[in-house]
Structures are given as C-alpha cells and as structure tokens.
Amino acid sequence: xxxxxxxxxxxxxxxxxxxxxxxxxxxxxxxxxxxxxxxxxxxxxxxxxxxxxxxxxxxxxxxxxxxxxxxxxx
Length: 74
Known about the structure:
Strand content: 35-45%
Radius of gyration: 16 Å
Number of domains: 1
Helix content: under 10%
Shape: elongated
Largest sheet: 5 strands, antiparallel
Structural class: mainly beta
Distance between the termini: 36 Å
C-alpha cells in the first residue's frame, strides 16, 4: 500500500512524484466510474494526476553500499 507523502513513479510516463491521496473504497471508486484503485500523484511541476494503482511503483534509489563512492568492478 502507498502512503501519503511517499515518493513514487508513474510507470507510463516515468515521472516521479509524491502520493497526495489514495482511493481504494469500492463505493467511492464506483461513484467516480473507476474500476480499480487510484493514486493521486503530485509531480515536481505541481501538476496532480489520478493514476491507476497498477501503473504506480515505489521509487527505489540505489546507493553506494561500501560508502567510498567508488564504482565496483566485476
């Protein structure tokens, strides 16, 4: 599940943003004419967009596990 404020990526547009709201309640989804849970994402530009939960992924940032800033060689 996604929490408000968490950083996510819209996999269709590859845009990064923050979760503003999540709608999973079936009655609300039906009222809006949506067939699956939606997440509202706010992008850096300020634009907000409702996106199907299936096309949202948590942003994972790779860090240097050794802490020395050097690239590992294979």
